[in-house]
Amino acid sequence: MTTRELEKKANEIRQDVIKMLLKAGSGHSAGSLGQADIFTALYFEILKHNPKNPLWEDRDRLFLSCGHTVPVRYVTMAHAGYFPRDELKTLRKLGSRLQGHPERTRLPGLESTSGPLGEGLAQASGFAYAARMDGRKFRVYCICSDGEHDSGNHWEAVLFAGKYNLSNLTVIVDRNNIQIDGYTEDVMSLEPLEAKYKAFNWHVLHIDGHNIEEIIDAVNHAKAVYEDPTVIIAHTIPGKGVDFIERLPQWHGMTPNTEEAKKALHELRTLGGRIRSEHE
Amino acid sequence: MLNSKLKLSNKIFEKDIEKRACRDGYGKGLVIAGEKDERVVVLCADLTESTRSHHFQEKFPKRFVEIGVAEQALVTVAAGMAAYGKIPFISSYAIFSPGRNWEQIRTTVALNNVPVKIGGAHAGISVGSDGASHQALEDISLMRVIPNMVVLAPGDAIETRKVVIEAANNGKPTYIRFTREATPVFTTDETPFKIGRAEIFWDSVSDRVQNITHNSVALIACGPLVYEALLAAKKLDAQGVGSIVVNCHTIKPIDEKKIVEVAKECGKVVTVEEHQVNGGLGSAVAEVLARNYPVPMGFIGMNDSFGESGKPDELLEKYGMKSDSIRETVEKIIEKRGGEKDGDFKSQKERWE
Lengths: 280, 353
Hints:
The structure holds two protein chains of two kinds.
Chain A: H1 3-24, H2 29-34, H3 36-46, E1 61-64, H4 70-80, H5 120-133, E2 140-145, H6 152-163, E3 169-175, E4 178-179, E5 182-183, H7 184-188, H8 193-199, E6 203-208, H9 212-223, E7 230-235, H10 258-274
Parallel strand pairs in A: 1-2, 2-3, 3-7, 6-7
Antiparallel strand pairs in A: 4-5
Helix pairs in contact in A: 1-3, 1-4, 1-10, 3-4, 3-9, 5-6
Chain B: E1 19-21, H1 22-36, E2 40-44, H2 54-59, E3 64-66, H3 71-84, E4 87-93, H4 102-111, E5 117-121, H5 139-144, E6 150-152, H6 157-168, E7 174-177, E8 182-184, E9 199-203, H7 212-215, E10 216-221, H8 225-238, E11 242-247, E12 250-252, H9 256-266, E13 269-276, H10 281-292, E14 297-302, H11 312-318, H12 323-338, H13 342-352
Parallel strand pairs in B: 2-3, 2-4, 4-5, 5-7, 6-7, 10-11, 10-13, 13-14
Antiparallel strand pairs in B: 1-8, 6-12, 9-11
Helix pairs in contact in B: 1-6, 3-4, 8-12, 9-10
Organism (chain B): Candidatus Woesebacteria bacterium RIFCSPLOWO2_01_FULL_39_10b
Family (chain B): Belongs to the transketolase family.
InterPro entries (chain B): PDH/Transketolase (IPR051157), THDP-binding (IPR029061), Transketo_C/PFOR_II (IPR009014), Transketolase-like_Pyr-bd (IPR005475), Transketolase_BS (IPR020826), Transketolase_C (IPR033248)
């Protein structure tokens, strides 16, 4: 896909996220919209995967540590062909494969069961460690939120991956500066985040988390780092693409009502018509 | 009398019975499991020698992973390795794992349904002089409430070895709790063992069926206290009280059939464990009997209190987990039942059959 096509895809994914959350009536809007460009770049450009054979042995593995943003993963997977888009309507409903927080055993293509924060990086690290033991060539990716950097389990894993030089592991941190109780720097300040990772022997990159080309370039850069694991700090806008959701902590765990969804979809469609990649 | 089919130690009631620590069996089991299956890996949280994981580390250095003092990472890293296809054993003290990392175990191992094997060493009060902060007396409760989890408490070094080897192949999230001190080795290599199957080690009841309503009891035990239950059974036999001693090494899935069977035969049950009475083996047995065949019960274990520093034997004595305490509990229950008429018992029995 061209960059412009990827940007359009991300816009479509945002629209489906809104529709899906409206239908579900509960869920997490801000992070799901904010990560749409990252998920689009991963599923439509970066990952080696096969939607028709989700358990293909040589696929790259994508762990989602912050399980609450799984709506954007479900939508992206549906767009990529893992399952019909119609199934998105079942999010959070009784009997659905699309649980409120992702469960590996229910939907092929999810690599872990997550939701409780701070536990994903350690699982991705264990997976990467085991894969390296067997000389496997696929790569392991993990998406983390910034808020979950408050958790001890996460930093235990940062220590672990740093010590064991897990260069087959790339972490993308969704640095959107919000969490449930407010702005991350007010709740429990994380800065200087780059210096923290460096002190734990990680390779650190910064990108605009809404710039598809920067996302792809950074991941390719990480593939060339053989000494250490790489963390890509992706600066994002929570709620990106919908004016009245952007940057507001209260939208972390809220969904739009019918009126708001209509407004959001209108905004996204208008924006979609204006997408002209700077890179063309 | 001792169940001769089980080929138990022939020195079982002798003073010079061999003593060895369950953790030694854990260490040996890890090596054998590792030899049998190259997917077996061992992760440890800075307690490699004292959990006896060093045997595996020496034999398979590339399959041993040091995690440091980080029990949450210990289990979550293992969950990732298990999702990949490894069979990770994670070694630490029971107080830290599953004590400190319970939610991680619930989410990333049990709900995720991956075969991580949690080795909880230094369980129980017999860890001794380290004191209450290090005496895991709640771990069985913590683990048995989690769906998908298998919970095992082997009785001696040989049984612990067998547990480890079998757990490596069960394909399920599994918790193995074991103790620190050298304790009597009452089973042998030939003693049959199967996860989920409780074994009758002693039976001095069957030939006195006439007396069962007043004079017999089933002792259902796990861990090294199975041996104390056997000692109690022998003393009771000398007093004319018949008993059945069940080694209930698998607390989940519990052997309901065997438990109901011995309850029916004896009419009274006493459970024996080095664990809080709240939520442990005793509770698991009580749940089975309440549903199927309620009988009077006694509970040997910690009674809602913490331990303290002391020698293992002193502590077991003080907190009422040695054979004399078991015997006294049995006597009290028999006394109570003795006050009732046979008819009462029969009608109760009929009601439940």
